[in-house]
Design a protein that fits this description.
Blueprint lengths: L1 E7 L4 H15 L3 E6 L14 E9 L2 E2 L1 H9 L1 H5 L3 E6 L1 H4 L4 H15 L7
Parallel strand pairs: 1-2, 1-3, 3-5
Antiparallel strand pairs: 3-4
The structure holds flavin mononucleotide.
Length: 119
Amino acid sequence: MNLLIVYGTTEGQTRKVAERMATDIRGRGHLVELLDSAKFTPDLKLGHFDAFVIAASVHQEHHQEAVTTFVFAHRDLLSGKPSALVSVSLSAALEGHEAAARKYVDRFVSVTGWQPRMT
Ligand SMILES: Cc1cc2nc3c(=O)[nH]c(=O)nc-3n(C[C@H](O)[C@H](O)[C@H](O)COP(=O)(O)O)c2cc1C
Protein backbone atom coordinates (compact mmCIF):
# COMPACT_ATOMS: atom_id res chain seq x y z
CA MET A 1 0.00 0.00 0.00
CA ASN A 2 1.18 3.53 -0.80
CA LEU A 3 0.28 5.88 2.03
CA LEU A 4 0.57 9.65 2.43
CA ILE A 5 0.90 11.33 5.82
CA VAL A 6 0.20 15.06 5.76
CA TYR A 7 0.99 16.86 8.97
CA GLY A 8 0.75 20.32 10.47
CA THR A 9 2.96 21.32 13.36
CA THR A 10 3.66 24.56 15.18
CA GLU A 11 6.30 23.44 17.67
CA GLY A 12 7.47 20.16 16.12
CA GLN A 13 5.62 17.59 18.25
CA THR A 14 3.24 16.49 15.50
CA ARG A 15 6.18 16.12 13.10
CA LYS A 16 7.68 13.63 15.56
CA VAL A 17 4.34 11.80 15.79
CA ALA A 18 4.11 11.70 11.98
CA GLU A 19 7.70 10.43 11.64
CA ARG A 20 7.03 7.72 14.20
CA MET A 21 3.88 6.64 12.36
CA ALA A 22 5.82 6.57 9.08
CA THR A 23 8.53 4.37 10.61
CA ASP A 24 5.95 1.97 12.04
CA ILE A 25 3.93 1.73 8.83
CA ARG A 26 7.07 1.22 6.71
CA GLY A 27 8.01 -1.55 9.13
CA ARG A 28 4.79 -3.29 8.09
CA GLY A 29 5.94 -3.30 4.48
CA HIS A 30 4.13 -0.24 3.10
CA LEU A 31 5.42 2.80 1.21
CA VAL A 32 4.97 6.06 3.12
CA GLU A 33 5.45 9.65 2.00
CA LEU A 34 5.58 12.40 4.63
CA LEU A 35 4.41 15.89 3.74
CA ASP A 36 4.53 19.05 5.83
CA SER A 37 1.30 20.91 5.05
CA ALA A 38 3.23 24.19 5.10
CA LYS A 39 5.27 22.94 2.12
CA PHE A 40 2.51 21.48 0.00
CA THR A 41 3.06 21.77 -3.75
CA PRO A 42 0.22 21.33 -6.24
CA ASP A 43 2.30 18.93 -8.40
CA LEU A 44 1.94 16.18 -5.78
CA LYS A 45 -0.25 13.50 -7.38
CA LEU A 46 -2.66 12.55 -4.61
CA GLY A 47 -4.33 9.94 -6.79
CA HIS A 48 -1.18 7.77 -6.49
CA PHE A 49 -1.89 7.09 -2.82
CA ASP A 50 -4.07 4.28 -1.48
CA ALA A 51 -4.60 5.69 2.00
CA PHE A 52 -4.08 8.92 3.95
CA VAL A 53 -3.25 10.00 7.47
CA ILE A 54 -3.76 13.64 8.37
CA ALA A 55 -2.06 14.78 11.59
CA ALA A 56 -2.42 18.25 13.08
CA SER A 57 -2.04 19.90 16.46
CA VAL A 58 -4.38 22.21 18.32
CA HIS A 59 -3.44 25.77 19.20
CA GLN A 60 -6.02 28.07 20.73
CA GLU A 61 -8.67 25.47 19.94
CA HIS A 62 -7.88 25.19 16.23
CA HIS A 63 -5.77 22.97 14.01
CA GLN A 64 -3.27 24.49 11.57
CA GLU A 65 -4.99 26.45 8.82
CA ALA A 66 -2.75 24.86 6.15
CA VAL A 67 -4.06 21.42 7.14
CA THR A 68 -7.68 22.57 7.22
CA THR A 69 -7.28 24.14 3.76
CA PHE A 70 -5.60 21.01 2.36
CA VAL A 71 -8.30 18.69 3.71
CA PHE A 72 -11.16 20.95 2.59
CA ALA A 73 -9.71 21.10 -0.93
CA HIS A 74 -9.32 17.31 -1.15
CA ARG A 75 -12.22 16.13 1.04
CA ASP A 76 -13.88 13.99 -1.63
CA LEU A 77 -10.69 12.14 -2.53
CA LEU A 78 -9.82 11.64 1.15
CA SER A 79 -13.32 10.41 2.02
CA GLY A 80 -13.23 7.90 -0.83
CA LYS A 81 -10.14 6.07 0.48
CA PRO A 82 -9.04 4.70 3.84
CA SER A 83 -8.10 7.76 5.88
CA ALA A 84 -7.48 8.74 9.47
CA LEU A 85 -7.18 11.96 11.45
CA VAL A 86 -4.63 12.24 14.25
CA SER A 87 -5.36 15.29 16.40
CA VAL A 88 -2.54 16.24 18.78
CA SER A 89 -3.51 18.39 21.75
CA LEU A 90 -2.91 18.87 25.44
CA SER A 91 -6.55 17.97 26.04
CA ALA A 92 -6.05 14.59 24.35
CA ALA A 93 -3.22 13.84 26.78
CA LEU A 94 -4.95 15.00 29.97
CA GLU A 95 -7.33 12.79 31.89
CA GLY A 96 -10.76 14.43 32.18
CA HIS A 97 -10.29 16.62 29.09
CA GLU A 98 -11.48 14.12 26.50
CA ALA A 99 -14.59 16.20 25.70
CA ALA A 100 -12.46 19.17 24.63
CA ALA A 101 -10.19 16.92 22.53
CA ARG A 102 -13.30 15.43 20.86
CA LYS A 103 -14.74 18.89 20.23
CA TYR A 104 -11.62 19.91 18.26
CA VAL A 105 -11.90 16.74 16.16
CA ASP A 106 -15.64 17.16 15.56
CA ARG A 107 -15.22 20.76 14.49
CA PHE A 108 -12.35 19.90 12.12
CA VAL A 109 -14.43 17.18 10.49
CA SER A 110 -17.47 19.45 10.26
CA VAL A 111 -15.57 22.44 8.81
CA THR A 112 -13.67 20.40 6.21
CA GLY A 113 -16.51 18.07 5.18
CA TRP A 114 -14.07 15.14 5.26
CA GLN A 115 -15.27 11.82 6.64
CA PRO A 116 -12.18 10.06 8.05
CA ARG A 117 -12.67 6.38 8.79
CA MET A 118 -10.73 6.75 12.01
CA THR A 119 -9.95 9.61 14.40
C1 LIG B 1 0.09 28.71 22.30
C2 LIG B 1 -0.48 27.31 22.52
C3 LIG B 1 -1.85 27.11 22.47
C4 LIG B 1 -2.39 25.83 22.71
N1 LIG B 1 -3.74 25.68 22.69
C5 LIG B 1 -4.28 24.47 22.98
C6 LIG B 1 -5.69 24.31 23.05
O1 LIG B 1 -6.48 25.23 22.81
N2 LIG B 1 -6.18 23.09 23.39
C7 LIG B 1 -5.34 22.02 23.67
O2 LIG B 1 -5.84 20.94 23.99
N3 LIG B 1 -4.00 22.13 23.56
C8 LIG B 1 -3.45 23.33 23.24
N4 LIG B 1 -2.08 23.47 23.17
C9 LIG B 1 -1.21 22.29 23.33
C10 LIG B 1 -0.68 21.77 21.97
O3 LIG B 1 -1.72 21.22 21.19
C11 LIG B 1 0.40 20.71 22.25
O4 LIG B 1 1.49 21.34 22.89
C12 LIG B 1 0.87 20.00 20.99
O5 LIG B 1 1.76 18.98 21.36
C13 LIG B 1 1.59 20.96 20.04
O6 LIG B 1 1.93 20.21 18.88
P1 LIG B 1 2.92 20.83 17.76
O7 LIG B 1 4.28 20.97 18.41
O8 LIG B 1 2.93 19.82 16.67
O9 LIG B 1 2.36 22.13 17.32
C14 LIG B 1 -1.54 24.73 22.94
C15 LIG B 1 -0.13 24.93 22.97
C16 LIG B 1 0.38 26.21 22.77
C17 LIG B 1 1.87 26.41 22.82
